[in-house]
Design goal:
Length: about 120
């Protein structure tokens, strides 16, 4: 058996990210799904780029603030207490608009825990 209690504030932020990302996946040694906590200020994004996953399902639970997610189907404003889900093969880009009233904090879960991310160009 294995149990973990982790305070994301005690973790070092993941380097070279456009916002504050704390990887619970790494801290807990998770293998089957990815789990991250993000805090993005106005003008910051969560991912490095507009992207798509081949296999991974991804869900973002907004703890506070509002997260905007751009997709080929339009933009979704995801408010505090709401969840945005991206199925495999569904391009998306999550960010906090520059004119937002404050930061957004979100918990993201992705499964399976695979490195299947590919850039997506909405112009193509």
């Amino acid at each position: 058996m294995g149990y973990h209690t982790i305070d994301p504030a005690d973790l070092e932020p993941t380097p070279d990210r456009p916002c504050d990302q704390r990887s619970i996946t790494d801290a807990a040694g998770l293998e089957n799904f990815a789990l991250n906590v993000y805090t993005a200020d106005p003008g910051e994004s969560i991912p490095l780029a507009y992207h798509v996953h081949d296999e991974q399902e991804e869900a973002f639970y907004v703890v506070s603030g509002t997260l905007t997610v751009e997709t080929p189907d339009g933009e979704f404003d995801v408010d505090e207490g709401e969840i945005f889900v991206a199925e495999p093969q569904s391009p998306h880009f999550a960010f906090v608009p520059e004119d937002a009233h404050g930061p957004a904090k979100a918990v993201a879960v992705g499964a399976p825990n695979v490195d299947d991310v590919a850039p997506y160009d909405p112009e193509e």
